[in-house]
Structures are given as C-alpha cells and as structure tokens.
Amino acid sequence: MSDQNPVQPLAAIPAGYLADAQDRLVFEGNIPDAERLRNALVTDLIAQVRTAHADLAALKAQLLSRVAEHVALVASDYNVDITGTSGNCVLISYNGRAKIERISADRIVVGEQIHAAEALVREYLADATREAGPALVAIVDRAFRRNVKTGQLNVARLLDFVAVKIDDQRWKNAQQAIRDSLQAQGSTTYFRAYERADATQPWQQVPLDFSIISPAAPEAPHA
Fold it and tell me: How big is the CA angle at 59 (ends 53 and 64), to the nearest 5 degrees?
C-alpha cells in the first residue's frame, strides 16, 4: 500500500503526514530526517518573518497616522485644516536627540519615448565623437545603462543627463523625449528615523532595511 495519496487541502493534512512539492501526502516516516528537520526549520522561520512583516506594516500605518495627526494639529493653530499624509516633514524631539523624517516621492516610470531619445543621442555621438570626447560618451553610457536584473533605467541618471547642455538639435530633441518619457504613477510615503547621543553629534539612522540590520548578540546562558 502506498504512503502517497492525491493532494488534499493543507488544512486537511492528517497528523504524521507532510505534503510534498506536488501536493501529495507523504508519511513522515518515509521522509529522511534531514528533510523533515529542514521543513520544520523553514516553516518556523517563515512564520517569524511573516510576523515581523506584519509588525512593520503596523508600524508604518502608525507612523502615517500619528505624524499626519500631529501636522494637522499644528496647522489648526493657524486655522488651517490639513488632511492626508503627503508632504515632506521633519520632527525632532525636544532634546534634539531623536528625529523622524516623512518623505513623499513620486513613483516615476520611463515611457516608450526613451527609445527615441537614446537613438537621437547615439546618432549625435556617432557624428561628433571627436568633438564630444570620452567624458560625454561616459555621461551618455551612464544615463542609458540598464539595471542588469530588471532592465530598467535609473531616473536620477536620466535627469542628470537632461541637465547637460549641448547646442545640437538632436541632443535637445533627445532631452525633450526624456522629459516626455518620465511619467508619475502615483506616489509613496516612507520614513527615516535618526538618533544621536547629544545635540552636538551627527545623526545616526536607525535602519529598517532587514539586509543592513546587524544581528543581535546572543543571550548569555543562564547560570
């Protein structure tokens, strides 16, 4: 008699069985110890990560709400009614040792006009490489360098390129095409937190990026 059965909903998995990658039930006694231990480890860790994710989501909601409430309260002193959570602002504690920044930024996407812009610029460089020089070629290459993983262009580098003035109509047309290609697709609000030992010291950011947070030191064993 086989220990593997057709897939069942995860909630219906009976005790003593695990579902494999094909959603078949497998008797735990037939699974190597190392695989069962790995499954238990990953299941436990992902549960902790989900909890941390939910905690961060709750924290962001609280930051959005409480900072907006404070800004509205201050505005009410001037008989102004402010609602919503947008706009940059900086809040510093009375002792000057803690700071919260709220930053609102547009989400910018690059439209299809960018292909015309790059073609115009490359055409200009092909005709004027000697006059342009390696520095200008480097500026162009940097502006149109795509992310290796996503294939996306960097908006900040495109804006730097638009600031470079050259008296050539193709160059100017390319810059206009870049401007036309940059389209705002909504906005996002994020926060930064800073601390310092006293008001004379530089600010130290409190990281919320999981990848750059140093792991906590292990607890000392109890005597």
Answer: 130
